[in-house]
Amino acid sequence: MATIAYGDFEEKLELVKCFLNDSREMLDAVEPQIIAMEEKALTVGKIDEAILNAIFRLFHSLKGSASFLDLQTIISVTHEAETLLEIFRSGRAVIKPAHVDLLIRTTDYIRNILDVVEQQLSDEGYEESAGEIIADFKKTIVNVLEDQEQAADGQQAPILPEEKTAAEAAAAAEAVENMPGANCGDPGIEITPEILKHFAEESNELLDEAESTLLALEKAPGDHESAIAACRAFHSMKGNAGFLGYSGIEEISRCGENLLGQIKEQKKDCDPVDVSFLLIAIDIIREGVRQVEAGSAPELPGKQEVCAYLEKLTAEAAAGGTQKEKNGGEKGSKAVKETAAAKGQEKIAAGEAEYEAREKQTGAGGQQAIRIDLDKLDKLLDLVGELVISEAMVANNPDLKGLQLDRFEKAVLQLDKITRDIQEVAMSMRMIPLSGTFRKMKRLVRDLAHKADKKVSLDITGEETEVDKTIIEQISDPLVHLIRNAVDHGLESVDERLAAGKPETGLVTLEAKHSAGEVWIIVEDDGRGLDREKIIKKGIERGLISSENSEMKDEEVWKMIFEPGFSTTEIISSISGRGVGMDVVKRNIEKLRGKIDVRSRPGAGAMFAVRIPLTLAIIEGMVVKVGANRYTIPINSIKESLQPWAGQITRTPGGLEIVSIRGELLPVIRLHHLYQVKTECLDLEEGILIVVENDEKKCCLFVDEVIGQQQIVIKGLSSYLGRVQGISGCAILGDGDISMILDINDLIINAGEVKR
After folding, report:
1. Bridge partners, residue 506, by sequence
2. Torsion angle of alpha carbons 415, 728, 516, 755, nearest 10°?
3. Which terminus of the chain, N or C, has less C-beta within 10 A?
4. Would you say residue 1 has pLDDT above 50?
5. Between 1.10.10, 1.10.287, 1.10.3470, 3.40.30, what CATH number should domain 374-429 receive?
């Protein structure tokens, strides 16, 4: 049970990776369904059958995947979960929050086991923890059935699924296997044409792989690697079909996988009979996939006969089949081949004709999408960056300065357009939807609501919004903090809400959208809102503001909650209240060059809007010159540029230079002082002031001259340089020189802010 029964497992890391990815995707899908089932049961008073079937199917698929690698811990707990879910599916009991908690705890446990398998390639040492969950399931099942027996008022008590007759068990298994294709997929996840298209494309790849490895196996029956590859292809085919509810394809894939499992484990030699039936199975599956691709439910002519004989071959192998049985199998092979061919000949022929007609219309290369390794996309993006730099070098070649080259200039403009188009395509290939991250928040809200003893509903919109994968990886933690605060601090208790004339169920809204080159992620609640007076009082206590600042604007008040250790909560809970979190939120968002805006109304709730640039690799920048050095200012931070006159300039007693622009007093940062650069431009009236803004704070940067706007490829600073004040990275300009990219937020923070 402990170690995965799969020879030379260390060499099969690709298979393990595939299993882990598939299993984690299934867990990500099942958790929102469990929560949706609970919500339906509480609001409608009965279980949604479609959601329940989807949950059952996902646990069933998890068990099947674990069985392939003999991970008994996962197999055992998912089996108990299936048993409990089968009771609900039969209508013998009503689901309760405690049952949902147990199912959620099971998904957490499976995630932990997956992490263990990823590290040690086995589930060894976790049998005891699995036993604890199994014991909880058995106790729960007994209690559920006892409750049902009491409710039946003396009627015959229902029996456990394990005690069913063989016929009843077979019928139940058949019901699971033959779940209608019309109800395929998860009700909470829309099965779009894109998903079906991806399923068809991946299936054809798997079938091609299975076919080629089977032919290799036929030529070399002892080729263990080919047996492993073929088994893996059938296993993946089974999982994909099962997830979408195509039970017929799932069943025949399972039969093929089982037979190949016997060959893989060297319990039998692969002979022509085995290969023949497996190839027939591939043809049947391929026809089913073609039907799915055409938009219809898969009908699999000859499936029943082929499955029956594949199971017969598997059973013979498990029992140590004799040569006589193999000879009989060869005769049977011919009979079943003829039966399958007779049953499916017309449909397959019609399908092939339709396929050929479609191929003539669309061309031979019918496949419209391929899967690409992320490392290759990263490399492509790096090359696009180098292309942008090279294009700038060509356009700004000093040898061509002053020459009238009309045709060359036209070619450069065309090159610039093509470069930008390539950049946009490369960027779009890294974009993925926020749906996966957003779905995880449903589980978070449910757990937080239970701990805080509140009723909370999470409303998600815009989950299809696409962002760069790097953003996806770094935005999850800030979202967790924001939602945790919304549930714990923002929303009132049930009694408080009812007393205020609000619905007893609090609402948290999670929204994503694109706006002006940025992605906006908004977390909003309909709770009590931020307490302005408490925040000001705490700010005065901590010395962040003086008592004279009590009339400050709301925006200034809200910014104090992002100070390290700031909290107005008097009672520390297991959820929050220690003042740790919001400063981390702001810091992580600023790492993405983003901003966070806060809005609040007393008694109506608070809103946190996170704004992040769509891309983190290439930006539009304004290149400026200071002495012999050049610096780049992000375009979206620039408000205006001007050459001041003497009457606008004043100095504070502390020596800080101030410029008055339309009645607004702004501090001046001399970049040549900050970075110790020699320059002949020392008077403010002789140089140029660039007004920059971040988070509604402004300052002026004093530079010698403005060179112009360019696309800038962001390069990180070497780690040995450490952190450089006011610098976020560097870039290579068109003439090969290096330009430091200014971190406007850091510069403004260190410059301070001067009010009029």
Report:
1. 456
2. -140
3. C
4. no
5. 1.10.287
